[in-house]
Amino acid sequence: MAMPGPNKSCFTCQVIEAIEAGVQTQAVARLRTGYVSLFGLPYPAGYTIFATKRCVSELHELGKETRSLHLQEMGQVAEAVYAAFQPVKMNYELLGNSTRHIHWHLIPRQPTEPKLGGPVWEDQQFLDHLRRGRTAPRVEIDKWRVQLLVALRAVGVTVEQDYVQPGL
Ligand SMILES: [Zn+2]
To answer: Ligand 1 mean position to 34 CA, how many Å?
Structure first.
């Protein structure tokens, strides 16, 4: 079956196009079923997004084989995030309400967070960063990208393409 082209009205498809064009500065890697990138907020450090290559809004729309591979890769990405950022707890979320294109939020919860007892969405400071478009310093994001790429390779997931420039 032919891969559908990017959906021009989909935010996640636009992000993927920017990654492929080399202008998305939080990208880490393209795997067999999706794209790994940093969320880039000031915290939690290493907050990772794993978006499917295909523009679908539900897991079952990937078909059985691709879904299985995607879930396997998602587990490996989460394992890499855990290894790279040493959280007190990993949070996994597949929401997709504002952009109807599957993208996992893989969130390594850090011991310094003010609201560690609940999801990040209950933390007003986190929400404030999100609404205001605050990001971590460039050097931090670039450090996280390198750490995550190293960890992805260590867990043995197939990296089709990485977007971390040599020398970072
Ligand atoms: Zn899309």
So the answer is: 12
